[in-house]
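I would love for you to help me understand the pair of lines that follows before we discuss the fold together.
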Amino acid sequence: MTNFSKNNNQEEDIVFNKFKNKLEINGLNIGSIDEDGFINVKIGESDLKISLENARRNYERDSDESHIDELVDVIVSHSLKNEDWENVKDKIYIQFIPNDFDFENMLNEKVTNEFSKVFVLNINNGFSFITKEELSDWKKDLNELEKQADFNLGKLLDKVKIEFEDIDNHKLGMINIQEVSLKSSCLFSSKIKTLVQNNIGFPFYAVIPVRDFCYIFAEEDFEYFSQRLGSVVLDEYNNSGYPITTEILRFSEVGVEAIGKY
C-alpha cells in the first residue's frame, strides 16, 4: 500500500482530516493510529497500514486534494487485488522507490544503487504494490509479470508525446501524458527506443527525480544539460512525496545505468 503519516495535532492537520472524511464518505473508518503515526484501516479481510507523509508533502507543495483522493481510491479498490489474473492484468505497471524503503514482501528489482523497480496495480491513478503472495495466487511467475507490465507500458506509449524544447541548439525532452504518475515509468518501456531514436538518438540520458517528472536528452548534449539541471532535479526530489533518485541515467541496449548524481 502506498505509504503516507499523520501530524501530531490532528485538529490542525488538514490532510489527515480530509483523508478521514473521504474514507467515511466511502463507508470506511480509521481503526487506530499507532505510535509511529501509521493509520490502520480494515477493508474486507485485509488490515491496511497507511502513512500520510507523501500525501502531505504533495498537498503542501501544490494544495491539490487529488493526492488524497488517489490514496482513498486505492484503499476502496483494494478488493480488486483478490480478483483473478484476467481481471487485473491490464492494470499492471511499474513504479520506482528509493532503496532505503522497507520492501517487505513486495516484488522488487534493483535498478541502480539508489532505487528499485516495483510492480503495481494502477487503480484510478493510484498504485497498490503487488506482493509475492498475489503473484502466486495468480499462478504467474516474475517473467510473466514483467512481460505484462511492459505490454501495458507499450500500449501507453502509443499515446505518449515527447515535447522537445530547443535551448541554445540543444534539445531537452519532456513527456506529455495524461497519466502523469507514469511519466518516469514510460522510459523503461521496450518501445522507448523507437520513440526517441529519430529525434535525439539512442542511447540517451534522463533524470527522473520523481515519478511525475522527467527530462531526456541526447548523448551529444550530456555535458551541456548535466551542468544545468541540478537545481531543478534537487528541487523536485526534495519537495515531492514520491522521490526516486537524483542520478543521471543512461538508457542503452544493455539497460539502464547511473553515470553520476546531483
